[in-house]
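Our working data are protein records whose layout never changes between entries. An example says more than a description, so a record of this kind follows.
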Amino acid sequence: MELQKLIFPFFTLFSLLITEHQLVQGSSHHHHHHHRRHHHQLNGFRPTKLFVFGDSYADTGNNKKSEANSWKIPYGITFPGKPAGRFSDGRVLTDFIAKFLGMKSPIPYQWRKYGGKKLRNGMNFAYGGTGVFKTLSLDPNMTIQIDFFQKLINDSTIYNKTDLQTSLALVALSGNDYNAYYANGGTAQGLQNFITLVVNQLELNLKRIKGLGVKKVAVTALQPLGCLPRSTIHSSFQQCNSTENTAVAFHNLLLQQAVAKLNNESNDSAIVIVDLYSSFTTVLQNQGNQTESSTFERPLKACCMGTSTDHYCGDEDEKGEKMYTVCNDPKSAFFWDLVHPTQAGWRAVYLALQANLEQILN
């Protein structure tokens, strides 16, 4: 089930968070420069497997076909040309990270029995709509995803310890826990405590993945939720909701502290934050010398939208009539639907992340 059906309510946080927001902003400036890809140094880390955990920003086809719009037209029209379970018109974050590592995108866990040789690239356990806790989705949350992974390792016919020593885990968390918090009656007053609980659980998950033998872990910072079309729709797609982004900055500050602590405890820099906050912001503001990235004309507007507030991209009525509209050229849009980037959007984010991703190979 997609969780774009919930509008993130406005919430107010203490002015204290504004200063923390500036801290987070300040810490990520060095990611803004566009670096030409270095050839992977021989003495650096060369992952041969990618294991993926998280939600729709990373899912490449785990949701059930009967439940998710990601299996309905027009999803997948750019790649692979038909709906294939990705929440986009084409490729998503996982595909670009795999490309960066010089490997094919790992097979979704649900399709593992068709894997064969494809299993050598690793496996994707991410399910759209999930979070670290139980969300509005019935799909496996991150704890259960890691359980699947652990069971697979214990059944060591597929992966052995050496495989894990040359593997990278991608952990994507893009806000479904916060949707569920509000849907279940959470208040603005309680949000700060809830953010702390979410990041604490994420920290336990990172520690557990690392403890299973995975060499390096890349975890996403939360993207600017206030810039998603489901929020910008209230300003006719003109501006981001800064209140929401302030809360996101608090989440990201706690995540930075958690990762620093884990890296400190293990005396290595095995966990790297993939800074989706600054990369999204860079692309949306078109800052920096992003020579290869296109400029998106109305970056805060979705390409595919329901024809009414009750309908979403991919919805049809009983007669099979479309209840959505699609823009002429998905390549000209940053956002595909109310929550997810287009393939072109992810590509621009990927280009803005280059310097950040190089840290994985150190």
